[in-house]
Amino acid sequence: MRNIKREVFWPPFLVLIASVIYSLVDSEGFMQNATTVNSFLLDKFGWLYSISTLGFFAIIVWVYFSPIAKIRIGGKAAKPFLTKWKWFSITLCTTIATGILFWGTSEPLFHLHTPPQGLGIEPNSIESMRFSMSTLFMHWTLIPYGIYTTAGLLFALVYYNLKRPFSLGSMLYPIFGARTEGGVGKTIDAICLYSLVAGMASSLGTGILTISGGLNTLYGIESSTLLLTIITLVIVATFILSAISGLTKGIQMLSDWNIKLFFGLAIFVFICGPSLFILKIGVESIGEFFQTFFQRSLYVGLSPEDNWSESWTIFYWANWLAWAPVSALFLGRLSQGYTVREFIHFNLFYPSIFGAIWMMIFGGTSLYMDFFGEGSPIYAVLQDSGIEHVTFAIFKALPFPTLISFILLLSIFLSFVTASDSNTSAMSGLSSTGISPDSPEPSLGIKVIWGITIGAVALIMIMNSGVDGVKMVSNLGGFPALFFMILAAWALVKLGRSPELLEPIE
Description:
This protein has helices at 6-25, 27-64, 84-96, 99-103, 107-113, 126-140, 142-161, 173-176, 183-219, 225-245, 250-272, 275-291, 293-297, 308-311, 313-334, 340-371, 377-385, 390-396, 401-430, 444-464, 467-496. With 506 residues, the protein is an all-alpha fold. It has a single domain (12-301, 317-498), classed as Amino acid/polyamine transporter I. The longest helix is centred in the N-terminal third of the chain and has 38 residues, at 27-64. The two termini are 39 Å apart. The model has no long low-confidence stretch (mean pLDDT 87).
């Protein structure tokens, strides 16, 4: 049985427990302090989030056309252990989680009715509708996947080609050398581990509430402490069992089912929804997205009253950054035997294309029903019943509402299980000794500990401080991750300029 890395495991574990206790004892004070710190960081460093995330994407584009793009991860003789389809399905389900299901129909409504003041867009207009869709493309395609690809590619090269230890500190080896294997590396591991646990708890809390809302819509089951507890136990037990089975079993099967459900739902909504409108708004918004790409990516709002970017774009970047370092450990592991250019295809381009199509279909349907419906009916559901009811309200207007809503519930469940499976494995490996390419799986015990911890944090938070409390904690984790990612981008550039380090010339 593997031993726990005490310096990596205990600090984030104890901080999480302390956060939960604080939330239980004084939930109002917890939220107030977290909100204050969060607002300060987003206000003072929003510009750095924006320019850095755009920079990560630019670096990946440079790498794609650089000499290292042809280098094989793991060396010239390395063979893939995943097919391209399984690689794509696991990558997509790991990074997207419940995000597209939860926000795909509700986020465009916010932008339609409350666009940023600084852009002078009239609310609830054709212009704001176009802005809504192009914003979905910005939040769910190239920039966020550029963050993940930067981190995942760097780890893959350092772990497989440079043969460094299974650690986040190893990602900075091209800059700091062997010093990253001591206390500095363990400190980085602990900070990023805390960020991901909080982020996963936030996502789990969102998933629990969405499933609860779906059960209420479908079967009239009222939300209660017992119901939320049962949902949490079922989700946690499933992803722990999947994680126990290892990378080659549970997650491959679950991801395959999940991505097929994604495709099925998207095709159904496109055919049965406002197909022509979806195509029109999609085409126009893609044009606007590319036309305003740099302006919107760097928009931070100059007026003190205009906090749109802090509430949306910068908030998103912070959360993606909180997940990115530890997710990189898992994404990097999947890539053995493929080239750097193929890594970029499967971690940036293909998921971005899928995200754009998904948002075009579901966001377009939501915008159409709300804008052309009497009295903004979908936005009214969002305001009266909450975000978790929006997608189900849309499905009520489509054929076979009960069946499709049940499939949506199943997809939400599988989405979080697959994302949690992969990240629980990465977290467990990060806080264990003896992880290597030849022995990649951490022990059963530590997987169970992290799985239970995530479930407990999520359940306690949503019942006391609400899911916003966990989101705040997750978002705060994105701040130290931002600086880690800046260093990681620098390390990737150094490797890109020295391809002989990755694949020695024979």
